[in-house]
Amino acid sequence: MWGDYTGTDLQCDEYPFASTKEGSTKGDNRFSVRLIDGTDNGNGGRRLDEMYTLNRIIDGDAFYMQITN
Fold it and tell me: Long-range contact list for 50-59, CB < 8 A, 24+ apart?
Protein backbone atom coordinates (compact mmCIF):
# COMPACT_ATOMS: atom_id res chain seq x y z
CA MET A 1 0.00 0.00 0.00
CA TRP A 2 2.76 2.44 0.94
CA GLY A 3 5.63 0.96 -0.95
CA ASP A 4 8.95 0.27 0.68
CA TYR A 5 9.70 2.69 3.50
CA THR A 6 12.38 0.56 5.15
CA GLY A 7 15.47 2.53 6.05
CA THR A 8 13.34 5.55 7.03
CA ASP A 9 12.07 6.69 10.42
CA LEU A 10 8.46 6.36 9.23
CA GLN A 11 5.89 4.02 10.75
CA CYS A 12 2.34 3.20 9.72
CA ASP A 13 -0.23 4.50 12.22
CA GLU A 14 -3.95 3.82 12.21
CA TYR A 15 -7.18 5.31 13.49
CA PRO A 16 -9.19 3.98 15.23
CA PHE A 17 -6.37 2.82 17.44
CA ALA A 18 -5.24 -0.79 17.04
CA SER A 19 -5.70 -1.21 20.81
CA THR A 20 -9.48 -0.71 20.50
CA LYS A 21 -12.21 -3.08 19.37
CA GLU A 22 -12.74 -0.99 16.21
CA GLY A 23 -9.03 -0.58 15.52
CA SER A 24 -7.51 -1.23 12.13
CA THR A 25 -8.93 -4.44 10.64
CA LYS A 26 -10.61 -5.58 13.87
CA GLY A 27 -13.86 -3.82 12.92
CA ASP A 28 -15.58 -3.41 9.58
CA ASN A 29 -12.41 -2.52 7.63
CA ARG A 30 -13.23 1.19 7.88
CA PHE A 31 -10.07 2.80 9.17
CA SER A 32 -7.50 5.39 8.23
CA VAL A 33 -3.73 4.85 7.99
CA ARG A 34 -0.87 7.23 7.45
CA LEU A 35 2.90 7.11 7.59
CA ILE A 36 4.17 9.23 10.46
CA ASP A 37 7.48 9.83 12.18
CA GLY A 38 8.39 6.81 14.30
CA THR A 39 9.22 8.91 17.35
CA ASP A 40 5.84 10.64 17.14
CA ASN A 41 4.14 7.26 16.78
CA GLY A 42 5.88 5.93 19.89
CA ASN A 43 5.04 9.06 21.88
CA GLY A 44 1.42 8.84 20.79
CA GLY A 45 1.21 5.21 21.85
CA ARG A 46 2.62 6.02 25.28
CA ARG A 47 0.14 8.88 25.71
CA LEU A 48 -2.72 6.60 24.69
CA ASP A 49 -1.64 3.98 27.23
CA GLU A 50 -1.42 6.73 29.85
CA MET A 51 -4.97 7.85 29.01
CA TYR A 52 -6.23 4.28 29.45
CA THR A 53 -4.47 4.01 32.81
CA LEU A 54 -5.42 7.44 34.20
CA ASN A 55 -9.07 6.96 33.25
CA ARG A 56 -9.11 3.33 34.39
CA ILE A 57 -10.28 2.11 30.99
CA ILE A 58 -10.13 -1.67 30.83
CA ASP A 59 -10.84 -4.15 28.04
CA GLY A 60 -14.44 -3.81 26.88
CA ASP A 61 -15.05 -0.34 28.37
CA ALA A 62 -16.62 2.22 26.08
CA PHE A 63 -14.98 5.63 25.85
CA TYR A 64 -15.16 8.75 23.70
CA MET A 65 -12.05 10.25 22.13
CA GLN A 66 -12.06 13.90 21.07
CA ILE A 67 -9.11 14.87 18.90
CA THR A 68 -7.95 18.44 19.48
CA ASN A 69 -5.11 20.51 18.14
Answer: 52/19
pLDDT confidence tier of residue 41, bands split at 50, 70 and 90? very high
Per-domain residue ranges for the chain? 1-69
Is the pTM higher than 0.85? The answer reads no
Span 10-23, pLDDT tens digits: 998 888 888 888 77
Give Cβ neighbours of residue 4 (< 8 Å, ≥ 6 apart).
none
Could you give the CA distance from residue 14 to residue 33 in angstroms, rounded to a whole number? 4
Alpha-carbon gap, residue 43 to 36, rounded angstroms? 11
